[in-house]
Design a protein that fits this description.
The protein has 202 residues and is mostly helical. 82% of the residues lie in helices and 0% in strands.
Length: 202
């Protein structure tokens, strides 16, 4: 296994903008670090488990039934669009922050299965960095561990940045503009998915 290449792939995938990072950053700003911890833990544990499941054969189900993959993409795109709307229209202010509810651990972990970027990362890592041989399971476990080790601090940086902005973005208008920006970033991450679905249905 090419460890240097895998580590570079994991780092570039985990630290760049995507649905997980933009949503967690918005959660950090609106709810703070402590209340967003279940969301963070759901991501850093849920995604490695997804990689493990893909490596152990979930991807073969989609090879056998391609329509299921398309259905998952449609559901994921619709759900992410809904989340972008919720972020953009979230109430702002101290009272709204206290009343709002960030993602729970289970919600964040389950979200990985409708996250297009997570699927690309998981399948890409398994297909690229494993070989058919006696140590296939060992390679899958190593990939899972590397993504956990790199993803945990990378994703934490987004949560920390969002929470840090609480000291800068004090006015409701500034927070609202930030939320709109995060919603736009989330929708922007769906452009390749919408383009692919358009080629299939149009």
């Amino acid at each position: 296994m090419e460890y240097a290449s895998l580590i570079a792939f994991a780092l570039s995938s985990c630290i760049t903008p995507g649905p997980n990072n933009s949503m967690l950053m918005a959660s950090g700003l609106n709810y703070g670090t402590r209340r967003s911890l279940p969301h963070y833990l759901g991501i850093i544990l849920g995604f490695p488990l997804m990689i493990l499941a893909v490596g152990l054969g979930i991807a073969q189900v989609f090879d056998a039934y391609p329509a299921l993959h398309t259905v998952l993409k449609v559901v994921g795109a619709v759900y992410l669009s809904y989340l972008a709307f919720k972020i953009a229209t979230a109430p702002v202010g101290v009272s709204a922050s206290k009343a709002g509810k960030p993602f729970t651990f289970l919600q964040a972990a389950a979200f990985q299965w409708v996250n297009p970027k997570a699927w690309v990362m998981a399948i890409g890592a398994i297909v690229t960095y494993t070989s058919i041989g006696n140590d296939y399971l060992g390679e899958v476990l190593q990939i899972t561990g590397i993504f956990f080790a790199i993803g945990a601090p990378s994703i934490w940086a987004w949560l920390w940045l969002g929470a840090s902005l609480q000291r800068v973005l004090r006015s409701p208008r500034a927070v609202r503009l930030f939320n709109w920006s995060m919603a736009t970033l989330l929708l922007g991450s769906l452009v390749p998915v919408f383009a692919e679905l358009a080629t299939q249905f149009l």
